[in-house]
Amino acid sequence: MFEVAMLATADDMRARFGEDELVQLTDQAAWNDQAVAAIDVKIATATSIAEGYVAKYYAPAPGRTIPPLLTEIVCDLAYVRLHKAMTEDLKDRRDQAMKLLRDISTGLQKIDQGRQDIPARQGAVIVPDRERTFSRDSLEGF
């Protein structure tokens, strides 16, 4: 089995939706390992959905920060999946998250304000140039 680098955490969900609500949605008595595990399953599914849309523009790497917009989208998708019945509010939340993912996949929405994580290189780059057409030597005698 492979491990998925998740774009959100259970703590992100707790900060966004509140501990009490998440405990209730996971059918647990308190915020415990079972509640976190149930939330992590939904986050992993939401991460897989999001990565399918944004893979062209964002690739997670060790040490690279996750854009807050992606964390928000994944939290919303996971929150919807935690519910057993779909309400109009949940449908709107899911549709808005999916619209953002589609906009990211087509380039209409940027997830990192146009910044790219490009590592700095050491030293100067030397590029050989072609021989000059008009030089002192080639124009000698004119």
Instruction: Classify the beta-strand content into a percent band.
Output: under 5%
Give the C-alpha Rg.
25 Å
**Oligomeric organization of the protein chains:** single chain
Order of helices and strands: HHHHH
Count of discrete structural domains: 1
Shape: elongated
Distance between the termini: 76 Å
Structural class: mainly alpha
Summed over residues and divided by their number, the pLDDT gives a mean of 85
Unreliable parts:
none
Pfam families: Phage_Mu_Gp36
Organism: Sphingobium ummariense RL-3
Protein name: Mu-like prophage protein gp36
Task: Describe the protein's topology.
Blueprint: H1 10-17, H2 19-25, H3 33-54, H4 68-82, H5 88-106
Helix pairs in contact: 1-2, 1-4, 3-4, 4-5
Description:
The chain is an all-alpha fold. It has one domain. 50% of the residues lie in helices and 0% in strands. The chain is built from five helices and no strands. The protein has helices spanning 10-17, 19-25, 33-54, 68-82, 88-106. α1 (10-17) crosses α2 and α3 packs across α4 (68-82). The model has no long low-confidence stretch (mean pLDDT 85). This is Mu-like prophage protein gp36.
